[in-house]
Amino acid sequence: MRDFHIFTDSCSDLPIEYVKEKNLEFARLTCTYNGQTYYDDFGQDLSHKKFFDDLRNGATPLTSQPSVDEFYRKFKTIVTSGKDILYICVSTGLSGTENSATIAKGMIEEENPEAKVYIVNVLTASLGQGICVIKALEMKEQGKSIDEIANYFESTKQKLNTFMTVDDLNHLKRGGRLSSAAAIIGIILHIKPMLRIDHNGKVGVLGKARGRKASINKLAELVIDRIENPEDQILGICHGDCIEEALKLKEIILEKVKVKDVMINYTGPAVGTHGGPGNLAVFFMGKERSNI
Question: Could you tell me the superkingdom of the organism this chain comes from (predicted)?
């Protein structure tokens, strides 16, 4: 059986320290604003702090998926070393990244018939995707085969829950996630939308909360109500430069449930462009997505 490499993209929003520790290969999305194009590469080319400060100062970024060439070059390096590839990919409901990867996969497998590139769309993004990468690496270290890991995620990804709230509705409006009228009314009434990633991997409106404190409490309630086997899993929390609120969310959750670990990190530019400063999201394994 050929060895294999776990691969991902920068939408996974993992801490750069973890990426380096695991020697994790990834494809980079890009973010362009104020006449400058940056790589979304876990805060190396563009610091998360600078990105969110720029958004607060009026920057209007555009994001782009990785090119076919980026995937081809990185896939080629891995298969040339004699390894297959398991790519944990951002949701096709949120990004066209898988399209580029699929074209590169076809090129690689045609040139290298002995090599296999598995693409697993986990139907989420940010640290939801990131905790899947962590799980995949753990399973590989436990001796699981590439097929066993791919099959695991295909059979369990609908249990991966993703819930979010945002502080500024204008970013959702600009990204086409919310109508102008709804955004204006929400801003006037201080309404914070509660969002989720649905079973198709797309952003959906779950409800609303009156004020920031209520929205954070609602996120915690969703975790407490829906999480399953918490002691066996990592809970992911991502934030748009609002670490104090991320820590508060963690505190509220841990008062009711005990998890194996909690990973907190910034939302990167590719995802943060739509969530804006103050976005807050939580990711965990629990009840089926359609069961809400």
Answer: Bacteria
Q: How many other C-beta atoms are found inside a 10 Å radius of the C-beta of residue 3?
A: 11
Please give the CATH topology (third level) of the domain spanning 3-157: Rossmann fold (3.40.50)
Contact 117, 4 (CB under 8 A): no
* Calculated CA dihedral for residues 53, 124, 287, 232, nearest 10 degrees: -80
The segment(s) of the chain belonging to CATH 3.30.1180.10 are 159-285
- CATH assignment, 159-285: 3.30.1180.10
Rounded to whole angstroms, the Cα distance separating 103 from 120 reads 15
Dihedral sign, Cα of residue 52, residue 56, residue 57, residue 63 = positive
Task: Give 236-283 pLDDT, tens digit per residue.
Answer: 999 999 999 999 999 999 999 999 999 999 999 999 998 999 999 999
